[in-house]
Amino acid sequence: MRLTVVYDNNPGAPGLQTAWGFSCVIELPETTVLFDTGGDGRILLANMARLGIDPATVDLVALSHIHGDHTGGLEDFLARNSEVTVCVPPSFPAEFKRAVQATGARLLEVSAGQRLADHVYTTGEMGTGIREQALILQAEPGLVVITGCAHPGVVEMVAEAKRLMDGQIELVFGGFHLGGQSRSRLEAIAHAFQELGVRRAGPCHCSGDEARAVFAGVYGDNYEPINIGTRLELALPDTQ
Q1: Looking at domain 2-233, what is its CATH homologous superfamily?
Q2: 157 to each of 62, 96, 103, 124, 134, how far by Cα in Å?
């Protein structure tokens, strides 16, 4: 399993464009998943090209929540490849869903614990305000949870992933939506991760520099710095 961050507002690999938003490509032996599409399709596609990822290889697009910095690149992406299934929380606006279907793409409304592909599951829609899904990946070391913005609460989303899949959590990364939180609150969240058994953590996108610093301090060598262009490779489990 190879995970590549193709859109983020934290600078990383040279030659890649940073912008507010998030997107990650998950490459598996039988399926390639695009999780979120950032805010600008031109930047998304340029970064994918720079990283050697062909949009035509993507089979599945999963959108965490409706905000434009996570869905804004979808139209340009579907103009390049509409032979995909787009997985969305049921609360997405009907107009958005119709626009996706009009491109020829298949639309799938997700439910909690649903299997989207081999080794890829969803928390389903969470939250009562801004509703959002996170992805749960099965890897050999343990589960990987990827959050777009974690508006329903990043600890709550990780706890739900653990409840649904009943396994050790190897890594949580993505947007944690922690900008503006006090240092004591950030430390409490990082320690809550540890209590949930999260072995590695990598806040990016909307997490904020202070949160990244706190997680780095709490997690030490198990902190995963996530930026635009970050690539992670994990072995797959023996069974699906």
Answers
A1: Ribonuclease Z/Hydroxyacylglutathione hydrolase-like (3.60.15.10)
A2: 16, 24, 31, 10, 7
For CA atoms 12, 17, 21, 26, the dihedral sign is negative
Q: What are 134's two structure tokens? A: 């996170």
Specify which residues 173 forms β-bridges with. Answer: 146, 202
pLDDT score at 240:
46
- For residues 11 and 37, the answer to whether their CB atoms sit within 8 Å is no
Could you say which residues of the chain have pLDDT below 50? 240
CA pair distance 238, 46, nearest whole angstrom = 35
Length of the chain: 240
167 near 137, Cβ under 8 Å?
Answer: no
Question: What is the DSSP secondary structure assignment for residue 186, as one 8-state letter?
Answer: H
Residue whose tokens read 């930026």 = 227
Instruction: Parse the chain into domains and list their residue ranges.
Output: 2-233
User: Inter-axis angle of helices 183-195 and 209-219, to 10 degrees?
Assistant: 50
Residue showing tokens 């290889």: 57
Structure tokens at 230: 């970050």
Token look-up 């947007």 returns 175
Of 11, 2, 37, give the one whose Cα is nearest residue 226. Answer: 11
